[in-house]
Amino acid sequence: MGARVVVCQVLQRTVRNATSSIFSPLPFGRCLLQPLCSQCRLFCSSSSTPLSSPDSHKAAPVWRKPVTELSLRTLAEMGFTDTQAEQVYDSVSKASGKGAAKHPLPCLSALLALGLNPSSVLKLLEKCPELYSIMESQFQQRIGNLRKLGLVEGSLQRVVAHYPQILTVPVKTIKSVVVVLREKCLFTVQQVTDILRESPTIVQEDLSQLEYKFQYVYFRMGIKQAEMVKSRLFHFTLDELCCRHSFLERRGLYQTPDKKGQTAIINPKLDRVLNLDQDTFLTHVANASAEEYDVFQRLMAREWQKEEKQRGNIEADSDDEEEEEDEEEAETAGKSAYRKKRQK
Questions:
Q1: What are the distances in angstroms from CA 41 to CA 33, 56, 159, 220?
Q2: 20 to 30 A Cα–Cα from 327, which one of 55, 144, 252, 344?
Q3: What's this model's pTM, rounded to 2 decimal places?
């Protein structure tokens, strides 16, 4: 019994000393080993630093600088091959020398986001390097406007691939063209969409010329809107249209319909007047030789030059008359003011 009592007393003293040493500060400052948990810091520090939460030991998120400069590596990450990346980089360098490549990365990103593959994007930029100067916000506005006008997926990509210059035209300009087509030419919404899809160059056409072309075909040739759209009228210039129509008219092969829309002969369809190549047009529609048509084109060019000169002279005369009227009004106003002063 005595031995057991002694052993129990020794064990009690040992446990007390151990527990007191655990919760008392150590005199060694900081230990050399990294603590494994927040509770173990009691063994390693004698300072009064507050305990940190377990989240403080998580790795901080790595901040990466956004890519703002064009490089071969950036182009490769976009999906371009090494050869394509070099071609794009060279084209950007050339455009930068001319002051055109202000926003190359937004341009590339917008075209790729449109669904075009890198090969198509490269061809677009070769056709129209001016795209490099367009900001990302402008791309979004112009593409969004084309979608509102009915150019859905597939049609939109084909239009941009065929005529990338359409993305360099401001939204306001395209809206002005649409207003002329809808309000002055009376095309339907679907017909306007078809015109933009088949003849996207119309967005850069002079509005007065656009309206005159419609009136010429509608009144002189007696063609309705549906046939104009089907024949891709706005794909051709006014000179091409007038030259072929006048040639047929002077040969007695085309007549202007009367008020009832009737003619003494059967006029050829607008599609055959415009969409055939010159040899086929002369052989199967005009029944004439290439020499005859060449002479006619020269005569027409002279007539148009004379008409332009006459228009210029008329405009100059009208400007002179307006200036004379302004001078007369100024003289009259001056005399009346002088008379009032004399009367006073």
A1: 10, 15, 69, 98
A2: 344
A3: 0.70
